[in-house]
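Notes on consecutive records. When two proteins share a document, each keeps its own sequence and its own token line. Never mix them. Below: protein one.
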Amino acid sequence: MTTNISECINVILVQEWELPITALAEEMRNFVQMWHYERQTEVDKCKTKLTPLAEALLDEQYQLSLRMHLDPACETVYMVFDGDKNGVVDLQARTCSCRQFQLDQLPCAHVMIAIRHMRGDVYDFCSDYYLSKRWKATYAGMVYPFLHQADWVIPIEIGENKLLPPTLGF
């Protein structure tokens, strides 16, 4: 598994690296266009409030929370017993002693049981970054295709410029 987009592109375009720079740039643009369209199609199928990954993570935390119990300290602070590493949850401060809630910005199992106890809406405790509408906005645009290089209309003032490599200042 790759860790960033440049590594992903490097792996996919391994044969294209031998092409002239303009052909390589076109292959990269074509790849990004297809990649963007595939994700846009996937996003359009999403009918949940959060992204599918976030919904799956919430469901996993919910299932874990079913095996826990809690003792309220006040309306928003709870001691949660999970049988292993207990947690202190403060819903008003949006914190849990396990720190997963603060790191992921999604309710952990400790927070999940506290939300259930107060009959709250779990979505109110999720970061906006996980909202489907944010995901959809990411892919709202499009990557425009180019005409063949022979069909490009290049303004005279640009076409007359001679592009030189940078000078090295030694």
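Protein two starts on the next line and is unrelated to protein one.
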Amino acid sequence: MAPQSHLIVFLTIFLSVYVLSPSPSMVAASPALVAKVCSSKTLLDHNFCFKALANPQAAAAKNLNQLTNVVMKSAASNAQTTLNLITGMAKKPTSPGSLKALKTCEEVYRYAVRSFGMIYAELREDAMSANYDVSVIGPEADRCAQALAAAKVNAPEIADGNRNLLHYSAIGGDITATLN
């Protein structure tokens, strides 16, 4: 084979491999990140974690900081949805005890939305404070659940929201602890 033929074969193979290989920007490390985060022994519900992180934003995350941002946005959105539900329920005629319980839950969810929303920015300045702040959201869900139970309010949607708060708080706490 002539030297020109070798060069053409080499260039053809090289360009084929180069063009058909995914670029580094297209390869997300997130499957490994998601598996690492969701396989943590400290999480309450691994399935919840995998479902919560089964979205295009999590798939695009290339590091734990980006994944934290995705989780906190999802948590804040989820908490806002539950807050809207609680606010709507509180506007309807109800007993004073039920209204007091709903107001407690409103406080909890306002706090959760605000806290989840600020974790990512706080993470850049002080990962230890971000870890503390995200970790204390979980017990707030218990405060809402206890208020509802004491008033004998049966609200499965709020109970679901409380479980989600606990899970998102645990996921956020686990990720931010890793970043400390």
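For the record: The two ends are 60 Å apart (CA to CA).
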